[in-house]
Amino acid sequence: MSQVDLGRAPRIEVHESPEALATAIAGELLVRLADAQSAGHEPQIALTGGSIAEAVHRELARLTPSSEVDWSRVVVWWGDERYVAPDSPDRNAGQAQAAFLSAVGTDPAKVHQMPSTADAADVAAGAAAYAELLRAQGAGEFHIVMLGVGPDGHIASLFPGFPQLDVEDEIAVPVTDSPKPPPERISLTFGALNRAASVWFLVSGEEKAPAVARALAEGTDLHDIPAAGVSGSEETIWFLDRAAASQL
Ligand code: 6PG
Questions:
Q1: Domain enclosing residue 177, as ranges
Q2: Does residue 248 fall inside a structural domain?
Q3: Ligand 1 centroid – CA 38 distance (Å)
């Protein structure tokens, strides 16, 4: 498979600056979570790593007190993670914990970090364990999956030209030679990421503009631009700043 049927056209939302982008994404997430909870659901979300995600996380901490969200009733997963020591500053989970998860009242039993080097024999075992957890606890479907996008069009730890792009029968896969350091990572697969009602791409910066334009162009092969391979069953939103949108 080299293309997915995007179904409904993706929505594109452009904000003036990276700061305005992060504030808008955090605000929208809080509204969506509160709405899901007031409709009686326990929302399941997948977080991402990367610089704009860090800014979004900080905004979540700032804006949560004025929102209706009960974070103890939100189930948190990750789309990908760096397979490093649990206290490494490279951990996506460590960043999210420090920026907002510890502050907003999440239930630790519902925050499902991907394994670190302390939790698994190797990165392949870590990926298998996370897949098992998702299978057992999950997430028939994520409410919202958030994805940063690299200048090469990667999302999660699915990189252009890599064999993980063609894994169809797994939920999570190991990566041992990531072009973005650190080299060892665990990533959800397209199959798992596409089990989302809503997929949000979070993209900031001029160096991402060509990848954004290619991902949104018709007929782009996901082997070239992995971001072209993910869409939500109900909606797909590209949250961009002006610079990231500059080639659209
Ligand atoms: C990671 C990520 C990765 C990231 C993109 C964008 O673990 O590094 O999950 O997929 O989201 O590389 O990162 P930036 O926003 O820092 O460019």
A1: 2-241
A2: no
A3: 32
